[in-house]
Amino acid sequence: MLNPSETKTLKFIQKYCIEKGCSPTLTEIADGIGIKSRGVVHRYIKSLESQKLLSVASNRKRGICLNLEAYENQSIAPIIPLLGRIAAGQPIEAIEDRHEINLADFIMDPDRFALQVTGESMMDAGILDGDTVIIKHQNTANNGDIIVALIDGLEATLKRFKRLPKGMILLIPENKSMEAIAYEAERIQIQGVVVGQLRSYQ
Amino acid sequence: MLNPSETKTLKFIQKYCIEKGCSPTLTEIADGIGIKSRGVVHRYIKSLESQKLLSVASNRKRGICLNLEAYENQSIAPIIPLLGRIAAGQPIEAIEDRHEINLADFIMDPDRFALQVTGESMMDAGILDGDTVIIKHQNTANNGDIIVALIDGLEATLKRFKRLPKGMILLIPENKSMEAIAYEAERIQIQGVVVGQLRSYQ
DNA sequence: TTGAATGTTCTCTTTTTGTTCTCTATTATC
DNA sequence: GATAATAGAGAACAAAAAGAGAACATTCAA
Q1: Are B114 and B133 in contact (CB under 8 A)?
Q2: Of A90, A111, A113, B191, which cross-links B148 as Cys (Cβ 3.0–4.6 Å)?
Q3: Cβ-proximal residues to B165 (8 Å cutoff; 6+ apart), any chain
Q4: Neighbours of B68 (CB within 10 A)
Q5: Greater confidence, A26 or A67?
Q6: ipTM exceeding 0.95?
Q7: Which of A2-6, A15-19, A69-73 is modeled with the greatest confidence?
Q8: Could you give phi then psi for residue A17, rounded to 5 degrees?
Q9: Cβ atoms B37, B31 nearer than 8 A
Q10: CB-CB contact of B159 with B171 (8 Å)
Q11: How many whole angstroms separate alpha carbon B193 and alpha carbon B184?
C-alpha cells in the first residue's frame, strides 16, 4: 500500500513522463513534490520499486521506468479519475457516471497520428475548427467513417465516407452549407480514419 | 527513452527540415540547441540513430534522414507527433500540421474530473451525446464558460454561463431548439468549468 | 585540384545525478 | 515519559553525462 508521499511521487513521475517524454531526475522529483532532499526521494523510489510499480536502471540518470501494467484499475493509473463528486447521490440530467478514461486510447499506437482541424466542414459532426483529431492510418474505410482523403494526390481533406455504385465514392461534409461531392474511386486515396477527437478550452 | 538533449536535438532537426527542406549540419544543430561542440551533437545524433529515430548517410553533409514513424511509436510520447505522412509536401486544405499535442492538459490534476455527456443541449458547441468532458472543479466562472451547474441543489446540467444584472444568472444551451433560462444566483451552484472535451469513435 | 566546410573520433574537464550515510525533528505507540 | 517509527535535511562519494575542443578524414563546390 502506498503512503501519501509515495503516491505523490508516483503521480509526479507519471505526469512528468507524459509531459516531457522522459523520466525526471531525483532533484526534479524533490522539487515537484515539495521537498529538498534527493536522498529522501531515492527512498521513495526504492519503495515504489519494491512494490513493482516502477523499475530503475541503477546509476543511470533518468533511469526510472514506469510499470504501466501494474496499476490497471487503480487510482494511481494515469487516467482521469471520474466523478462521484457531482453525482453525490443527486439525480442528474445531462450527466452520467463513467469509471475511467484511459488516455492510452489516445496515444501509444504506432498506427495513429494526429491532425489539427482547420475549417468548418465537419462542424455538424462536432468537429470544430481548431480541434485535434486522432487518425488511424489505413487505406480502407467503411461507409459512415470520417476519413482523411487525398484527392488526386493533392488535396487532403476530412470528410465522411460513403461508397456509391459504379466505383464512385462520396465525400460528405458535415456542414449544412456545404455539398457532398462524388469522385471516381481512383481519384481518392484514403489516408486514415478518425478514431478520436479532442479539444482544449484553455 | 529520449533525454532532454536528445529531444531538443530531434525537435530542432524536425523543425529545420520542415522549414528549410533539407537537414541541418552539425554546426547548425549545435547552434540551434545552444551548445558549441559539433562532437557533442554527433553523439546525440548517434544515440538517436541507435534508437531508430533517424538515419545518417555516413560522412555525407546534411545526411540526416528522419524516421517519423518510429518517433510516433515511442511508448510514452509526451505528444502525438504529427506530420510527414499526410502532408508529404502537398498543399492541404482542411488540415494543418501541428507539431504536438500535449495530453497533459487532459490528466492528473487533482482538481479535474471527467463526465460523460448525455443529451444534446450543447450540440452546437461541438459537445455531443456520449462525449467526455474534462471539468475543472471550481465554484466561479466567467461569462462564456461552459459550466456544470447544480440547480436548486438537485439537477446538474451542462450549459454556457452568463451573469446578468440584478443577481441573475443565465444558463444558455447551445442548441437552437432549446431556450436559455435565467435563474436567481442563489439557485445556481457552479460545480466546475469545462476545460477539455474528447470523443472516441471506436 | 584545392580549400573551406563538414563529419568523425578522441580526450579532458566540469557539472549533474544516483546512492549511501548520518543527523534532527516530529509523530505515533506502548 | 520512554521508545520506536517516520519524514526530511543534507553531506559525501562515485558514476554518468554534458560539453569543449583538438585532430583528422571526407565532401563538395568553385
Answers
A1: yes
A2: B191
A3: none
A4: 17
A5: A26
A6: no
A7: A2-6
A8: -60, -40
A9: no
A10: yes
A11: 19
Length of chain B: 202
Closest in B83, B92, B108 to A15, CB measured: B108
Hey, what's the cell of A173? 461534409
Question: What average pLDDT does range A53-62 have in this prediction?
Answer: 90
The set of cell numbers assigned to B77 is 510520447
Q: How far is B123 from chain A (nearest CA, A)?
A: 7
Using alpha carbons, select from A62, A28, A57, A30 the residue that is nearest to residue A43.
Answer: A30
Q: Could you tell me the three cell numbers for B83?
A: 506530420
Shortest distance, CA A40 to any CA of chain B (angstroms) = 23
Backbone φ, ψ for residue B31 (5° rounding): -60, -45
Residues facing A121 on adjacent strands: none
Looking at the partner chain, which of A61, A66, A197 has a beta carbon nearest the beta carbon of B198?
A197
CB of A199 within 8 A of CB of B196? yes
Q: One-letter amino acid identity for B100? A: E
pLDDT digits (tens, 9 = 90+) for A149-159: 877 766 677 88
Top-confidence residue, B118 or A84: B118
Cell of A47: 519503495
For chain B, the farthest-separated pair of C-alpha atoms sits apart, in whole angstroms, at: 75
Note whether A184 and A166 are within 8 A (CB).
Answer: no
A7-11, A66-70, A116-120, A165-169: the lowest-pLDDT one: A66-70
Ordered by where they begin, the domains of chain A are 4-81 (1.10.10.10), 112-198 (2.10.109.10)
Among the listed residues B93, B123, B83, B125, the one whose alpha carbon sits nearest the alpha carbon of residue A135: B83
Q: What is the DSSP letter of A104?
A: G
Task: Give the three-state DSSP class for B7.
Answer: helix
Q: How far is the CA of A111 from the C1' of D23 (A)?
A: 45
Contacts of A22 in chain B (CB under 8 A): 1-4, 7
B40 vs B192, more confident: B40
Angle between helices B4-20 and B38-50 (to 10 degrees): 90
Percent of chain B that is helix, strand, coil (3-state, to 5): 25, 30, 45
